[in-house]
Amino acid sequence: MRKTDSQLQHDVIAELEWEPRVDHADIGVAVNDGVVTLSGYVKTYPEKFAAEEAARRVAGVRAIAEEIKVRLASEPKTADHEIAKRVVDLFAWNVSIPDKRLSVKVERGWVTLSGTVDKHYQSEEARRAAGRVSGVLGVVNLITVKQLPVPADIKDRIMAAFKRQANLDATTVSVATEGGKVKLSGKVRAWSERGLAEQAAWAAPGVTAVQDDIVVAF
Questions:
Q1: Among the four residues 35, 108, 110, 143, which has the most C-beta atoms within 10 Å?
Q2: Strand positions, DSSP E, 44-85
Q3: Nearest to 154 by CA among 205, 100, 85
């Protein structure tokens, strides 16, 4: 009886795990109509050949497409699972990121973040942290900000935060709120002041969106 592709994939993976000359952690196995595709990385050429031999030993393998690359120990580690581990480790060390509530997926160097946080800045910090990892080609941020009860005095809180900023003239900025959405308007003297106003609005509890219509008047 001919093996199914899923059975064949399972057997090839098991044989790679059994082969002592092969570190199977970085090797991927795909099967299509009995044709086995080996991909990923190994540390030496003998290991690459050993992986191919192991796959050929499995009954039911009709052909092998061998796409394994040899990567020396001195070369940067850019396999997807290695990138994912570094991102997760970086999150664990960053007190601003609630790492237990976030999920990380890496596919061909692209990192996708998902989960829920309480504050917008936590989502942004996770995005920036993931983008700093070597080998990352891009970050898709699907993290959502948790819907929290919006304080009745949210406008006053934002205005108070504006007034605490030494470089921001709070009298020139207006704040309007609707649910968790904040709309900023008015004029400031520099782009840095506009950024400070937006950061202060995002930092308020319960804010889920900020519409920044502030004009920079040089």
A1: 143
A2: 63-70
A3: 205
User: What does the pLDDT look like over 56-99, one tens digit per residue?
Assistant: 999 999 999 988 888 766 666 677 888 898 899 989 998 889 88
Residue 75 lies in a domain: no
Each residue's pLDDT tens digit, 125-151: 999 899 888 888 889 999 988 766 666
Using alpha carbons only, how large is the chain's radius of gyration in Å? 26
Residues 9 and 59 in one domain: yes
Q: What is the CATH number of the domain that holds 105?
A: 3.30.1340.30
Query: C-alpha 36: how far from its chain's center?
Result: 30
Question: Which residue's entry shows tokens 């061998």?
Answer: 66
Torsion (CA) 207, 97, 137, 107 in degrees, nearest 10: -100
Range of the domain at 14: 5-70
The residue to which tokens 């003239």 are assigned:
169
Q: Are 80 and 109 in contact (CB under 8 A)?
A: yes
pTM more than 0.70: no
The answer on 42 and 19 residing in a single domain is: yes
Backbone phi and psi for residue 159, each to the nearest 5 degrees, phi listed first? -65, -35
| 8 Å CB contact between 142 and 113 | yes
